[in-house]
Amino acid sequence: MNGLRKYLDKIKPNFEKGGKLSGLWSTFEGFETFLFVPNTTSNRGVHIHDANDSKRTMIVVVLALIPALLFGMYNVGYQHYLVTGQEMGFWPIFWYGFLAVLPQIIVSYVVGLGIEFAVAQYKHEEIAEGFLVSGLLIPMIVPVETPLWQIAVATAFAVVFAKEVFGGTGYNIFNVALVTRAFLFFAYPAQMSGDSVFIRTGKAFGLGGDAATIDAYTGATPLGQAGLAEGTPAITNAIGEPIGTMDYFIGLIPGSIGETSTIAILIGALLLLITGVASWKVMVSVFGGGFLTALLYNAIGGNGVMLLPAIDHILLGGFAFGAVFMATDPVTSSRTETGKWIYGLLIGFLAVSIRALNPGYPEGMMLAILLMNIFAPLIDYYVVDANVQRRLKRTKAATAAVESR
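and the corresponding structure tokens:
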């Protein structure tokens, strides 16, 4: 590493003001600070100096996403070979899923980072590191059969209109990855819903195989099946075999790439909590709000989603993934401690309510988080205002007590 540090120091003057490559300063600075902790410090004011800068924080989140991503890759291959009736070993299954998901990751990063780099160069600013996480989240929350050009268009839309127009990383009011998912859902509903988008039956990049000619299977997610049920839902896998709560927890079920395995998501959650990157209050309140709301709908009864067991609600769809990786986004969530409880509880309540009251759209987590992104500042405002009013009352009471003596 010392050799690399010396080499960067040697070529750095070329990128500084007046150097022959000064137009690429933002690119060089982003690469340098990705490899090494910046050694620049503030000259005045009160600041906390910590090696754990925003890039390191983002890298921790990326590492936390890896278990869900790897499992998602395996699940893509597992679902493929399940519906095609082939028995394969672990590595062929994983390799198929890896090659199916990799192009989506590449497209997400190339488009998103390309825009980030272009904007930074134009504004002569440092490259923001927020897309390190968003670029990986985007392919993990979409169906595996999402066309690459649609991912590219949606990513570009989200980075420009949900991030850069607000001022860039740290100023956006909406979660960028969720805006990408929402754009895809509303712009291309046929490619984002239905029974055929969650299971890849054709060949993956670099692998041979038949085209998608298999049609004797139900690729509907468990939530999709529950949404169609009139009574207590009987959930099956892609070939009609009954599955239950433990299957949902493990995650070998149809669904978006990174959202199916609750156990893999919880491993990532543990890393976020140990490192202090994510708020446990938001996580707990989202899970708690969703669970209690599901119990309420269980008591009311009605359609299949209402009758779905409460534990299954938090294991299925994007609920756990959203609670751990989306709702805890420090930029778009509430920042006051009391506000985090309110914010999380409302997300859990809305997610399950959207599922239960609109069976045609069984996945409510995306809309719940985006809606609460709007209200997060308002929640914090009233929490702070309530604290101010309590302090004023205490001050007035103390003043009145002194004057009465």
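(Above: one complete record from the training split.) The CA atoms of residues 80 and 86 lie 9 Å apart.
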